[in-house]
Amino acid sequence: MFDWLIVGAGFAGSVLAERLASQRGDKVLLIDRRPHIGGNAYDRYDDAGLLIHQYGPHIFHTNSEQIFDYLSQFTGWRPYEHRVLAEVDDQLLPIPINLDTINRLYGLNLTSDELDRWFAERAEPVEDIRTSEDVVVSRVGRELYEKFFRGYTRKQWGVDPSELDKSVTARVPTRTNRDDRYFGDEFQFMPAGGYTRMFERMLDHPNIRIMLQTDFAEIRNEIRYRRLIFTGPIDEYFGFRFGKLPYRSLQFRHVTLDKEWHQPVAVVNYPQERDYTRVTEYKHLTGQKHPRTSLTYEHPSDEGDPYYPVPRPENAARFKQYDALARETPDVWFVGRLATYRYYNMDQVVGQALSAFRRIENEVSGRAAREPGPALVDTLQPAP
Questions:
Q1: Which keywords does UniProt give here (predicted)?
Q2: Is the pTM of this model over 0.90?
Q3: Which end of the chain is more exposed for a tag (fewer CB within 10 A), N or C?
Q4: DSSP characters for 252-269?
């Protein structure tokens, strides 16, 4: 008998497993259909001995000292500020767009104040900003939208930015100074020993049992547990009752080159030519010294593991139907990107999991106080 069955060993499931085991003394079974822990943040050493991220680059950044301090229990840190270049018109230019981007692209020598006016002259007024296209053209105009955003977004999401919610491009700032960091957060680091090592330490507790290559659908009625935390796709849990929620997937091509370096920064985006969206060179992230270098090419796809919920109004409406079902399902908590159909950064998933633990503490402890003795059935019934 386990107190908890947790489906998914990524950030959401692992944080909750650690909290429930270490803070409540609960017995936890953590399962994942993949052959490893860590979810999409899983990293490994390849055949050349280089540490790579199996599912594309994961860069930790946060403004939350609480989240940073929590993860610091399980890892040391390597300071790292992420910088990205975009290949546009045969030049490698800083992205997010900043003062150097514009001056180099157009052969200008603008100051920050002049660039503010330059943007304003090109911006197209949009009365009601609803789409990703609206966000960009209202800020910097249509020419920069076409060069930096439209092609990349269409490759990444499979639809035109005019059909996507404004949240997609609102994540990328536009700067009038020379700050070329991709993120502006207070805490910007990489786990010193890698993400997988951090997860191993997080889950190293006698009350946590891990089963990999295990599908929830195959064991949900075979294992005895009191409560469930589900971090997989919420539509899958409910048997796709209202239809499938669309996700965008990725295909990764990992290569190793017989040279020390390939590109000047960790990530180069390709918004114009090429069928891939970006190339990552991991030694920039890890600080590893090695005579060879390993890269990952990312090819967006409609097929494969779900990575990104597609932010369109009809998808949000369908999710609300599933969310209503989830709220009526006793003793099941839905946590994480896939279970809440939101595109979260890693720190946001950690924050959501910590908040879920506090809610669980209040609800479960309060229920036990109101109802002495066994308050819950041993196993959950299959989803209707």
A1: FAD, Flavoprotein, Isomerase
A2: yes
A3: C
A4: EEEEEESSS-SSSSSEEE
Question: 340: which 2 tokens?
Answer: 């809440």
Tokens of 286: 């890890």
Classified as helix, coil or strand, 127 is: coil
Predicted confidence band of residue 123 (pLDDT cuts 50, 70, 90):
very high
- pLDDT tens digits, residue range 44-70? 999 999 999 999 999 999 999 999 999
Token representation of residue 36: 């490893």
- Given a contact cutoff of 8 angstroms between Cβ atoms, the answer to whether 201 and 123 are in contact is no
Cβ-based burial of 265 (10 A; exposed 0-12, middle 13-18, buried ≥19): middle
* C-alpha span between 34 and 169 (Å, rounded): 31
Bridge partners of 279, per DSSP, are 268, 297
Helix segments in 195-245, DSSP class H: 195-202, 216-219, 234-237
Q: Cα–Cα distance between 57 and 280 in angstroms, integer?
A: 7
Residue type, 33: R
Distances (CA, A) of 273 to 86, 88, 277, 381: 11, 9, 9, 51
CA–chain centroid gap for 288, Å, is 24
The H or E element spanning position 159 is none
Tokens of 180: 């070329």
Write out the two tokens for 63: 């403004």
Q: What are the DSSP calls for 69-92, one per residue?
A: HHHTTT--EEE---BEEEEETTEE
pLDDT single digits (tens) 321-351: 999 999 999 999 999 999 999 989 999 999 9
Stated length of the chain: 384
Cβ-count burial of 60 within 10 angstroms (0-12 exposed, 13-18 middle, 19+ buried)? buried
